[in-house]
Protein: non-specific serine/threonine protein kinase
Amino acid sequence: MIGFFFHYHVTSFYKLEPCVASLDQLFLDPNDPKKYSGPMPHHIDALLQLASGLEYIHSKNLVHGDIQPENVLISVDSACKEETTLKWANFELTRNVSERGKGKTHQLGGNNAWLAPELQLTRKRKKDVEENSYKETAKSDVFAQGLVFGTLFLNGEHLYGSMEKEKEISQNIIEGNPINMQKIDGKLRDCYENDLLKKMLENDPGKRMTSTQVVDQLKSIKDQIAGKEKELLELCGRDNRLDLTENIKKLIQFGINLNAKDDGGRNALHLMCRNYSSPKLTDAIKLLIENKIDVNAKDNDGLNAIHYLCRYHSSQNLIKAIEILIHFGIDAKATTNDGSNALHYLFRYNASPNLSDAANILTELGLDLMTEDEIGWDAFYYLLNKDKKEMKIWFDRGAVLGQGGYGTVFKGKFGGRDVAVKRIQLHHVDQREEDAMLKLDHPNIVKLFHCESDDNFMYYAMELCDASLDQLFLDPEDPRKYKGPMPRHIEVFHKLASGLEHIHSKKLIYRGIKPSNILISATPARRHIEVTLKWCDFGLAKSVNEKGLHSWSGVKGTRTWYAPEVLKKLIYREKAEQEEFWGTVQSDVFVLGLVFGYLFLKGEHLYGSSEKEIHKNIIEKNPVNMQKINGELRKYYEDDLLRKMLEDDPRKRITSKEVVKQLESINNKLTEKEEELRRLCFRDSSSGLIEKINDLIQLGIDMALQSLSFRSGGLRSRSCSRVSSLSDFARRSERRSERALEKSALPPTLLTEKEEELRQLCERDSSSGLIEKINDLIQLGIDVNAKDKYGRNALHLLCRFNSSSDLRDSIQILIKHGINANEKTNDGCNTLHLLCQNHSTSNFIDAIQILIQQGIDVKEKDKNGRNALFFLIRNSSMDKHLKANVFRFLIRHGIQVHSENEESCNLYQDFFKENDNWGKICFDFLVEEGIRFGWHDACEHCQQILSIKERPRLRLQHHQMFSSCYLVFNSLMEEWAKSTQKSGESELDIKNPTEWLREKAEQYHQSETEKRYKEDFEFMAEVSEQVKDGSNSGYFNCDNYERYLRSMYSIAEMTGSKESMGQILLFYLLPFDFPIYYGNKKESDIKRAKIEWDRTLFSWAHTETDEYYGKYLKEDANEGFFLPKEFKHKCHGEL
Structure:
């Protein structure tokens, strides 16, 4: 057996790949049904693919031995038809060679037309080469590869003659006479002949290039071609009145890739249609298209060539250019990323006198003048507004969010996101607002994305929020009232103070503090709604000096939200001795204190109700409503914070930075009180318990962080605030045992409420009492499968949001009581998708196993084509090591990694690049091969494999285990040989490593860890002896298979041999790390066969679309000449 080739441009040993044709079929007669007419890589890419594949084969100390076009397979990516790959195949004549490329062969394979001259001579003289040693055997492959390259350049002809005259070819090869070299196009020959082909076709193998040198030379040529491709793009990208067709022809003859693109995704045709204003435009377009440029290619913004013509071209030949593109098959109806079509671009930008003629052509093709783009505008709208300035900010005039003295705020869009658009008449614009917002970047300050103006207004695109703080305290019947969640007081205060501190740090004074300028942003997070408070409206902001002072040219701000030093100026027109004290950053701190009081008082002002009363009491230092704040709250906030913020003298007043620090101190005290409440609920059964609880609740402690347990009566309750007295506890406890009898007596309305309570419990409660609470609700007779408006049942919410250590048992409870584990949400997500989105707990895999046991389909996709792996990779809360293990677990259970969803594939690639590049190599192999592990439903190949009888099955499995160890061992030795040798260490002899491994084993004998390494090296030495004859697996002891793999993984990890680690973990150890229970051996033969096949999982993994795989594997098992006849270690008994 040759071994396992693990390379993009070499077909896999373990399974035939789904390739569409061989290279010789590319050159068949057009009428031949076997002719391949599909896509091909650009010639430089095709040559590089073949060269790198051969280099890889040689790097494994092997020669191919039968290089010719029919042994080159063409593989086309089913997901992306443009991804075409060439792969070497047919390794029947492949054999081992020495490090210098020498080797022995038992036969000379291949057609004479594809043999190197030294092999031609051998055949001609009819020498017996049974044991003859060829000094440069690998170089023979290089010569044959040069012949294949020539065939590509000559569209199927042979470099040395006609394929009908094989003797002529053979003679010309011997004489070094490539008679057809001159037929290669001149520019291509200049590029390849001297630097590559002649060196590959050198008659003396000693002077011939190596496969590595071929790869290096091709990379150099590719760089030269890339330079010419750049030259073409630059040529087409310039506005030029000259005829460029001759220059383009010269570049085309050089063999460049006409479909090369610039950073914006634009090819030569795009740039030509955008910039070239010569009357020769149509000739240049024809030239590019006739030379196979992709007429329908799109740039990064989704524009094709017709979009570019309609947007930029106003010359007389616009119509003819459009007609040429249509003639050559351009999709004239194509839309860009923002939903624009050719008509939108034509009417929006083009000033051509032929506008109506161009529009007629497009409408005749089916484009509709009334079709809207994603912004909601049709072609007519653009025509009417053509001369107006193009605006990047869009807003809905009917969606008014608010109005002020000088401006209006609308709901709108900017850059694809929803925004709030503030519109102000130009003569009322205060440049300070824009300047201030551009300086500020803080999570508690509304972000300014963009500002622009037209002839009448200035527009600001800002972060869109849900409400302002004053809407929190509107009448319940008022439709504007904010009814969403709010953080605790301490969190609100800290957010606002942090934002104000940032404003002051930028040398700005706000001057506009009031509840209506504090916005509430509620956004969905992983397990809850994330609520943030943000400062907005900086029209009154002004710069201050280094002391925090500014000059004041008139009192600003709303009349009830003033600091005393400002009020005195307003009311009494005072002339203070120090004018500078009228405007300090400390004025903002005083008003922030008023806002804190406003929150404590649920919408009331600390200093009164009417404007006159408020002014009077602020000046007289009399916060009349302070006493209305709860006593316990006041004790924590009044002296330590509020009094210091409301200090009359701004010079003695606390700073915004000190406010933040003081709030952090208060929060620490409240945290202690939360712990006190938990202890109270658990231990205190006294009559004063309710009063104590209420006192703690009124402090504003967090009741949602932990469920609270009450020992009284054995009851567990989610919220103390729901219970009014201990007698309630007792009554509820006594009735607990009666609930099962009362199930059917619950009215439908109450049942619906309880079903909602179950969903909320599963979503939010991660406490240790979760299972008991779920049981309590289920005993009421509720429908566990009831869903919310998003189609989510309790299990969905549990899997999406809950991080309880009881997650596994909670899932089992719900399933036990009839919940459907396979149910989907409105978005098409199943429980596995939701579980993978958020969870990071140690029992994660246990939870997945439960779902799999319930028949969950691991390869199921949501409505956007995303499977569980997609959500797993995006799970930012999960430890990378755990994520990699879950990835392996899902692959083990047959999840599809070769997703048709491009976003998913990119995510998987990024995950491996960032975390385990060795894993990426293995992952890429699975993707390219289309492999999915495990047994497939209704799969003919699986049925064939399972029908193999016991004796041939065990022989084949034995050989597969041997093959796996052989490959891993040799791969590990090669990696080790390349690593730096330690000082004093004996040199590794890769041909005979057994003694070296035994020497290594003797070096480890002190600590327990070293003793384990000693055992691992000893087992590796054992493997070395058992696999040294790569063609005979009879000396292999497969009873130790798993132990051999684990020893090799341990040594690979110790030595940093990443590629070997990846192969062992992702391929060979999967069935041992994540076993599947098929039933014991007393059960059916099929189950017993699955258990035995499982050990060699990777060796028989296949796609469900293979045509012959199962048949071939069965034939190998029954007739395989390479299978052992005797077993030295009797690991299968007498077979």
